[in-house]
Design a protein that fits this description.
By secondary structure, this protein is mostly beta strands. The chain is built from 2 helices and 24 strands.
């Protein structure tokens, strides 16, 4: 029985991400900060989160501007390269703006919270004036460092997410003793100006509703877990080390080769012909009493900034799950502009009917 699933990418942006403009003829009337944050950050729906930096004045007398003391550019540069701004914010009245030269990092050291283990996500809002695909985030712990895959940021505000469970799973990292978060644009040849707002730790583990009878879909971090009738083990939809979301041991294996070339002798996945640069996107498309639909896109861009267009080479899986345990999987391959594909083979892990 074939199955399919979709997960949403590590960075999300929409038309509403652009900075709000004040109404004509008067000052902007801001909603209370908790309401703004609930609208801006869907993963906080559980109510279990803590703010590490929000650049807002607090009742205790600390100002949003004072939080800039926890940030620095390394190697050290003019302190003016990091500033407090009020004209570009995701929520509230203030944000941080930084101009990052090539081969430099913005380093955030939160002085009081170091144990990330009770949470599933690190979340930060990042404003970029342009489409980029070279954002890389490094977390530093007492036991070692963890470096994220390259992350896409689109023009406007982006919700950048890091799945904390990946840190311990990678080994050599202690999520109970995190000392710093670092941001860099690793391909930049000239200074990059961007803004940061609302750095948070979130526990987003929750069950998705509504669902077909006897199906349970749980979101944990950036992954999903599905239980269905007739399936002895839960189906895990999780991100692998190459940034692509797969169905674990149930993932159908795709094997591709160039025209005139044979398929590899081994039975493993073979998608190298699509390109070495990869980024994954996962999305919950539909959930109701009848069915659940998910999509997982594997993008293979040929150059910087070319992640989000349908013209980019990609393999896209779309899965539909029904209450009786059936799964319908659709596979789409877009190789426009790439090396001509010859043989194609798909190996299924479960009995299936072809259409």
């Amino acid at each position: 029985m074939l199955k399919r699933f979709v997960i949403l990418i590590a960075v999300f942006c929409s038309a509403s991400c652009l900075p709000a403009r004040p109404p004509a003829g008067g000052a902007a009337r801001l909603e209370p900060l908790p309401i703004q944050q609930a609208k801006a950050y869907p993963e906080t729906v559980t109510g279990m989160f803590v703010s590490l930096a929000d650049f807002e004045d607090s009742p205790g007398g600390k100002t949003g501007r004072s939080q800039l003391a926890n940030f620095a550019i390394e190697p050290p540069l003019n302190p003016a390269a990091v500033s407090y701004v009020v004209n570009v914010t995701r929520t509230g009245a203030g944000a941080l703006e930084a101009t990052l030269p090539p081969r430099c990092e913005l380093v955030f050291k939160e002085p009081s919270v170091h144990n990330f283990s009770g949470y599933t996500l690190v979340s930060l809002a990042l404003y970029s004036p342009a489409l980029r695909d070279d954002l890389q985030i490094t977390l530093v712990s007492a036991a070692g460092v963890w470096i994220s895959p390259r992350t896409l940021v689109q023009p406007g505000w982006n919700n950048v997410l890091i799945d904390i469970r990946r840190l311990d799973a990678a080994g050599g990292f202690d999520a109970k003793a995190v000392g710093a978060i670092k941001l860099a644009f690793v391909d930049s040849a000239s200074p990059v100006t961007f803004a940061i707002d609302d750095i948070m730790l979130i526990n987003n583990e929750r069950k998705i509703a509504p669902m077909p009878k006897d199906l349970t879909l749980t979101k944990i971090g950036m992954d999903y877990r599905l239980t269905m009738p007739g399936w002895l083990e839960p189906l895990a939809i999780s991100q692998d080390a190459d940034g692509l979301w797969r169905l674990g041991g149930d993932q159908a294996i795709v094997r591709l080769a160039a025209a005139g070339k044979p398929l590899p002798a081994h039975p493993n996945e073979s998608i190298g012909i699509m390109g070495g640069h990869r980024v994954g996107a996962v999305e919950l498309l539909e959930n109701n009493d009848i069915r659940v639909r998910l999509a997982s896109a594997w993008y293979f861009p040929s150059r910087q900034g070319e992640w989000a267009s349908m013209a980019v080479r990609q393999i896209r899986w779309e899965y539909t799950f029904y209450a009786d345990g059936r799964c319908v999987a659709n596979l789409f391959i877009n190789n426009s502009g790439g090396t001509t594909i010859g043989p194609l083979e798909m190996l299924l892990k479960r009995p299936a009917a072809w259409a």
